[in-house]
Design brief:
With about 240 residues, this protein is α+β, with helices and mostly antiparallel strands. It is built from 5 helices and 12 strands. Helix 2 crosses helix 3 and helix 4 packs parallel to helix 5.
Length: about 240
């Protein structure tokens, strides 16, 4: 069975395309804009080509998303049949930060995992994908800083399903050769498909390989790499797998 997988930090459809826009377009972190509607449409079109999609930094219904859950919007606009989400941080009525998994197959056993760390607000979501050959997907958004990342990796290791096909996708905020990714991959006997050459941040001139896809030995990879799409301050990362 062939699977097309994607991981994407969508930055709540804010669409930053230059460092200066973190300041000049900073108001988009607080308020909605029509621009976000077209950005979500573009993201929905992009993710429709994939069987399983892991989204980070999606807004679940704050003021900056016009009090609409962006997961619902993307599910309606894309070709997926189901989505599951988790909420990690709420900032008043301004924003509701979360992660989501989109699938063209039914999902079951969805788990909301709150990651440890000095700063709260990071998480992972785990789900079983009821494909013809079932497998698990974990969507991760980790903190900045190696100390927190090591704590979070240990937590992921403790909560990962064993002896079953598993894909871990997400924004790890660290490189493919970093100590946290090495510990995660070795402890779970998983292969990191992304390399230091798969730079995804910042999207307008990528310098950092922060976004990754890992697979268990049940899979083999036919292709993996960064997608040339600039709808966020990250670029998406894809992999074509066979189970």
């Amino acid at each position: 069975m062939q699977l097309r997988c994607l991981t994407y930090n969508i930055q709540a459809a804010i669409g930053t395309r230059a460092y200066k826009e973190y300041l000049t377009q900073g108001w988009r972190q607080l308020f909605h804009s029509v621009h976000k509607n077209s950005t979500l449409e573009s993201i929905a079109e992009l993710i429709s080509d994939y069987d399983v999609v892991c989204i980070q930094e999606v807004d679940l219904g704050g003021r900056r998303s016009n009090f609409k859950c962006q997961v619902d919007v993307l599910l309606e606009l894309s070709s997926h049949i189901e989505a599951s989400s988790q909420q990690n941080r709420v900032v008043g009525n301004v924003s509701r930060h979360g992660n989501a998994i989109f699938s063209k197959y039914p999902m079951s056993d969805v788990q909301d995992l709150k990651l440890p760390g000095k700063r709260q607000g990071r998480g992972a979501i785990l789900a079983r994908i009821e494909a013809p050959k079932p497998f698990h997907v974990m969507n991760v958004h980790m903190s900045l800083g190696v100390a927190d990342q090591m704590l979070q990796v240990d937590y992921l290791i403790e909560n990962a399903p064993l002896d079953t096909p598993l894909i871990i996708n997400g924004d790890f905020n660290c490189g493919s050769m970093s100590a946290p990714l090495e510990r995660l991959s070795q402890a779970l006997d998983m292969k990191v498909l992304t390399t230091p050459h798969d730079r995804s941040y910042p999207s307008w001139k990528p310098r950092k390989d922060y976004d990754h896809i890992l697979m268990s030995p049940h899979f083999f990879s036919r292709d993996a790499g960064v997608v040339d799409a600039i709808y966020s301050d990250h670029r998406p990362v894809e992999a074509i797998l066979k189970l």
